[in-house]
Design a protein that fits this description.
Layout lengths: L2 E4 L5 H9 L4 E5 L10 H11 L3 E6 L4 H7 L5 E4 L5 H11 L3 E7 L2 H6 L9 E6 L28 E3 L8 H8 L3 E4 L4 E3 L2 E2 L1 H12 L2
Parallel strand pairs: 1-2, 1-8, 2-3, 3-4, 4-5, 5-6, 6-7
Antiparallel strand pairs: 9-10
The structure holds the ligand O=C(O)c1ccccc1NCC(=O)[C@H](O)[C@H](O)COP(=O)(O)O.
Keywords: Amino-acid biosynthesis, Aromatic amino acid biosynthesis, Isomerase, Tryptophan biosynthesis
Family: Belongs to the TrpF family.
Protein name: N-(5'-phosphoribosyl)anthranilate isomerase
Length: about 210
């Protein structure tokens, strides 16, 4: 069954929704400039409410201190910056958490480059390619899923970028992604998750 991650969760009611729907992972964004950002203290409160849900902390080129502060709230570390494979491996070893590396996909070269993370990352998340200097994720932008046919071998992988309840069935059929990750597509406005959209997304994934 395709695993589901709902990203950019920042309020208790949405944690509750994700629990009720038994999604696999929820994501907490620790990128300060994001409309979805939470503090380590907020994340800890949300994580306490999350029960058995896996909690994924998102960072962009983090200093060790930033990860350290968030660590009690997260079971997985997801990296959205320019972290090299060696830095991913170092973070995984230092903090004893699985590391997921987001790779922006805009061309076949991005796909082949992701093979460098085969040992360093527990999961590679293929996402839309961010513009230089702009937000590094949660863009609501799709990339060409057909590029994934040339995916190099990695331990595990997921699909993100512009997914919606309406297109996720096609995305899974086209890519056979073992995990799908969504943020903007289940929001009414940046940072405002919509419970009905989350439920519709989960339903479409489970029917795929
Ligand atoms: O969500 C953010 O604001 C964010 C900021 C900095 C780095 C990563 C960020 N989000 C990543 C994700 O939450 C998403 O799951 C992924 O990029 C897909 O987003 P979307 O296209 O909006 O579904």
């Amino acid at each position: 069954m395709t695993r589901i991650k709902i990203c950019g969760v920042s309020t208790p009611d949405i944690v509750e929704t994700c629990r009720d729907l038994r999604v696999d992972h929820i994501g907490f964004v620790f990128a300060a400039k994001s409309s979805r950002a939470v503090t380590p203290a907020q994340a800890a409160a949300l994580a306490a409410q999350a029960g058995a849900l896996s909690t994924v902390g998102l960072f962009v080129d983090p200093r060790d201190e930033e990860i350290e502060a968030a660590l009690p709230a997260i079971s997985v570390i997801q990296l959205h910056g320019a972290e090299a494979p060696a830095r991913c491996a170092e973070i995984g070893a230092r903090f004893s958490r699985p590391v997921w590396k987001a790779i922006g996909v805009g061309s076949p070269a991005d796909l082949s480059g992701s093979g460098a993370y085969a040992q360093a990352a527990d999961l590679v998340l293929y996402d839309a390619k961010p513009a230089p200097g702009g937000p590094q994720g949660g863009l609501g932008v799709r990339f060409d899923w057909s590029l994934l046919k040339d995916r190099p071998p990695v331990r595990d992988w997921g699909l993100a970028g512009g997914l919606t309840p309406e297109n996720v069935g096609r995305a899974i059929a086209a890519t056979r992604a073992p995990l799908v990750d969504i943020s903007s597509g289940v929001e009414d406005a940046p940072g405002q998750k919509d419970k009905a959209k989350i439920a519709a997304f989960v339903d479409r994934v489970r029917r795929s």
